Amino acid sequence: MLEQLQKMKQLPPLTMKQRVAHLKSLAKNIKANDEKIINAVSADFSHRCEQESQMAEIMVCIDEINHALKHIKQWTQTKTWHANWKFYPSKCAISPQPKGVVGIMAPWNYPFNLVIEPLVAAIAAGNRVMVKPSEITPKTAAVIKQLLSDVFSDDEVHVVLGDVEVANAFSKLPLDHILFTGSTQVGKIVMRNASENLTSLTLELGGKSPVLIDDDYSLKKAARSIVQGKWFNAGQTCIAPDYIMVSNSKKSDLIQAIKQQVEQCYPDYSDNKDYSAVVNHNHFERLNKLLEGLEPSQIISIGDKEGTDHSQKIAPTLVIDPNSSHPVMQQEIFGPILPIVTIENIDAAIQFINDRPNPLTLYLYSNNKHNIKKVRTQTRSGSLAINETLVHFAQEGLPFGGIGASGMGSYHGYQGFVAMSHMKSIYYQSRINFNGMVRAPYSQIKKKILSLLS
Ligand code: NAD
Asked: Which among 75, 251, 284, 307 is placed 20 to 30 Å from 9, CA to CA?
């Protein structure tokens, strides 16, 4: 790996012509291989709903490439920056420069997308790239390697396959930037490793994304949206609703509304092709274990358990009012289990959120402008999505990233380009130069000029 990196570091950045040609070819190859990609992801998961992969692995990647192609000329321009009037008539500029060789480390939950979207940003910015896909989805990783080698030379984009040890060694490489997507826990390890080389980082991490339902909001509408966001990919989404906060007076109606919506979307979940499996046996066990210590009356498992498909599927499950010290309220769930907690009012909900690590996304269902503003200004989260789940990820050019425990930095669109570039500042001294007026020795007149300028 190190030898390959050193070789890539000697090579020049990608030209504008190369960047555009590669991005176009990448889009073409993704479209031509969409079935192969979707099948590989499904094989890795033992079953992933085809339409979910179509949307989350293919469609958003193509949109991201098209957005980059549309704006790349504008992004890469050197922009004039006005010099401080005291230095008139000098000029300034900001010139984006590729960072060099960028490392991309991806998780398994959207194993194709979370390699390709960061790659688009890195290539648009002119970098060479080393990619480490997740070892948990090896079939998708093999397709990624093949597809990228059809588009890029090995010295432009190099794919490294291997286990956690390889991933650890990858994060110790003297790369010029790493975009890591994964858990907060591993993010800390990667940050520690990268610090040895002072490699800059974008950390796209996880955590618990809460949902807050205001009393004025239609429970039917909220349930429709929450069910879609929660059980898409069986809850294995970094921005999946992790738990719901609702007032006591609305709780039982909400439970009914969610049950009805789940039954409508995923009847007979175990045999249902629209319902994805849990990625592997370890995660299947982890999720089942997460329910330990709860009273049976707190657990509502929705749907038929007698299906014929015995793959790693877990029923859409609600957990009612778990204790806040229970693991289901302490760990990121990352699966089809959804706790519902009772909250007194909006202020108590804000306090509850602020007492915990900053979430990646906060979901708010409300039509009350005053409450929306209150939640927006009094909480901290990577993003705030109002009256809808997940789709903020797919908005072209909208920065995506966490804060604190949910991440550092952001990407998508121009923000991704900036994350993968060094914004080099340039100062042009004009021939007419008054700087001598404030150069030592500091005579009385110079002192006067300085005091006038201060
Ligand atoms: P993970 O942290 O276990 O693994 C992520 C990557 O880190 C993988 O490529 C893996 O090979 C590597 N890795 C694992 N152990 C390592 C180590 N000791 N040293 C260096 N590298 C190591 O995460 P995961 O289980 O693949 O994914 C789930 C997590 O990712 C969840 O927390 C989820 O919220 C988060 N996630 C975040 C986003 C986002 O955009 N913010 C998107 C998807 C997933």
From this structure: 75
* Strands annotated E in 268-327: 299-301, 317-320
- Looking at this protein, which amino acid is placed at residue 151? V
Q: What is the pLDDT of residues 113-127, one digit of tens each?
A: 999 999 999 999 999
d(CA 278, CA 192): 30
pLDDT tens for each residue of 336-384:
999 999 999 999 999 999 999 999 999 999 999 999 999 999 999 999 9
User: Which residue type does 218 have?
Assistant: S
CATH top-level class for 2-205+403-426? alpha beta
* For range 125-138, the mean pLDDT: 98
Confidence of residue 191 (pLDDT cuts 50, 70, 90): very high
Q: Is the CB of residue 399 less than 8 Å from the CB of residue 415?
A: yes
User: CA angle, 356 as apex, 241 and 319 as ends, to 5°?
Assistant: 45
Strand partners, 363: 211, 385
The interaxial angle of helices 219-231 and 248-265, nearest 10 deg, is: 50
Residues 6+ apart with CB under 8 A from 318: 255, 258, 259, 299, 300, 302, 337, 338, 339, 340
Class of domain 210-401: alpha beta
Residue positions annotated with a catalytic role: 204, 238
Helix (H) or strand (E) holding 450: helix 444-453
What spacing in Å lies between the alpha carbon of 437 and ligand 1's midpoint? 56
Integer Cα distance of 75 and 79 in angstroms:
9
CA dihedral angle for residue 230, residue 236, residue 238, residue 244, rounded to 10 degrees: 30
Q: How far is the CA of 182 from the centre of ligand 1 (A)?
A: 2
DSSP state of 278: P
Instruction: List, chain by chain if needed, residues with CB within 6 Å of any ligand 1 atom.
Output: 105-109, 114, 132, 134-135, 164, 167-168, 171, 181-183, 186, 189-190, 204-206, 238, 332, 334, 360, 402, 407
Question: Domain residue spans in the chain?
Answer: 2-205+403-426, 210-401
Cα 421 to middle of ligand 1, angstroms: 23
